Amino acid sequence: MERTQFLDRLSPPHIGTLVLITGAGALNMNIILPSLPAIAEYYQVSYTYVQLLISAYLGATAFMQLILGPLSDRYGRRPVMLVSIVVFLAATLLCIFAPNFETLLIARIIQTVIVSGLALSRAVVRDMVSTNEAASMIGYITMGMAMVPMIGPIIGGFLVEIYGWQSSFVVTLVFGIVVLLLVIWDMGETNNAPSESIAAQFRAYPELITSRRFWGYALSAAFTSGTFFTFLGGAPYVSVHILGLSPSELGAYFALTAVGYVLGNFLSGRYATRVGINLMMLAGNFVVALGVIGSIAAFSLGSTHPLAFFGFMLFLGVGNGLTMPSANAGVVSVRPHLAGSASGLGGALMIGGGAGLSVLSGALLGPETGPYPMLYLMLTAAIAGSLMTFYVIYVARKVAMEAA
Fold first, then answer.
1. Distance between CA atoms of 221 and 205, rounded to whole angstroms?
2. Would the pLDDT of 354 be above 70?
3. I need a labelling partner for 12 at 20 to 30 A (CA). Which of 67, 130, 240, 250 fits?
4. How far apart are CA 222 and CA 353, in angstroms?
């Protein structure tokens, strides 16, 4: 591993810089959630229409990763990150002063370039360290990043009540400027073997797509994160219509999952190097499945206490925190010279698949169903994630036997 020197633009970025780079996208995604009703009222549009600021953002984020990853493999991580942040800042300014909702929506979609922080930080880590060390380092980075979704909506709710919905974008603008300065001063280039051309980079996609281990890691990440997206899609309905929680109570119980995610990431950072990424992925999916089975059992026994649901979702957070750093490390390690492309494609599969599961989860729930469709969908996703991990282990052993 090359020595990291903080605020040295010629050395790899400090882990704190990577945390803030990654957190910028998470903050931009979450901070506006409490502002949606105010935006609907300001522009006199329906709340359903305003929700495009979230759903369209997720879709564009998935697509953007497919572009930014290969660009970073061709031109380097640093220049792509710098250009992305500058475009993000311009789009954020447009959000603040948008004369109509259509302009706001377009600017919001352009803001998705900030996903470069998430996609490229994984590639940067893989440039710097080995696969198991990458899982450990990604665990610590996402542990720090996970704090942003916990406090982002709280900050956003406070700001919109006092200063109006535009204030949330002002905060993300300031945060983006700080991240830009950090990238300028601290993020040295880590891609020391750029591809020959962008066309060659895209032509190299078949090499990635035909890798069985890549698909094993990518689908394991997609299914595991899908358990969380399924939870996000169905939890509001379960909380309000089955558990009878108020919005403030819902927000408080949601924090249990975030706390679990931080704990899982801490354990990944501490043990991934010595345990190995495959066992960490299996452990994470097992923990998720255990939590879901516990919740199913609690509801089946007639419990209607919020902890019968959210208490077991602490396991969901821990399991995702255990699995995701290792799965992402695997994704970018199968073809190290295509780390950026792999990170982008893997991220697109994860967010795109997760968004689909989120919609499906919400659609399956109804007055007569109880929470069971969502819980069984989560359990299915956890089992599928485990099967993908077993597939990766099988392929690795088969390759080793053929090489022997």
1. 19
2. yes
3. 67
4. 6
Taking alpha carbons only, the member of 325, 314, 261 closest to residue 292 is: 314
165 contact partners, CB below 8 Å, separation of at least 6: 32, 35, 38, 39, 42
**Cα–Cα distance list, 140 to 122, 133, 257, 271, 279 (Å):** 12, 11, 17, 11, 18
Residue among 205, 213, 222, 170 at smallest CA distance from 398 = 213
Contact (Cβ atoms closer than 8 angstroms) between residue 26 and residue 148: yes
Looking at residue 4, the DSSP 8-state letter turns out to be P
SS3 164: coil
Helix axis angle, 52-75 relative to 77-96, nearest 10°?
150
Residue 133 region by backbone torsions, left for phi larger than 0, else alpha for psi between -120 and 50, else beta: alpha
pLDDT over 80 at 189, yes or no: yes
What residue ranges do the domains of the chain occupy? Answer: 15-201, 206-403
Cβ contact 112:29 at 8 Å: no
Cβ atoms of residues 136 and 117 within 8 Å: no
For 77-92, the pLDDT digits (tens) are 899 999 999 999 999 9
Token pair 């997760």 in the structure block, residue: 354
CATH number of 206-403: 1.20.1250.20
Quick one: CA dihedral 188, 194, 199, 201, positive or negative? negative
Q: Tokens for 150, please give them.
A: 């916990």
pLDDT of residue 204: 67
Question: pTM here?
Answer: 0.74
DSSP secondary structure string for all residues of 201-226? HHHTHHHHHT-HHHHHHHHHHHHHHH
Whole-angstrom distance, CA of residue 172 vs CA of residue 178: 10
Q: Say yes or no: do domains 15-201 and 206-403 share a fold.
A: yes
The CA-based angle 172-178-179, given to 5 degrees, is: 85
DSSP class of residue 13? P
> Beta-carbon neighbour count of residue 343 at 10 Å?
27
CATH code of the domain made up of 15-201: 1.20.1250.20
C-beta separation of 32 from 53 below 8 A: yes
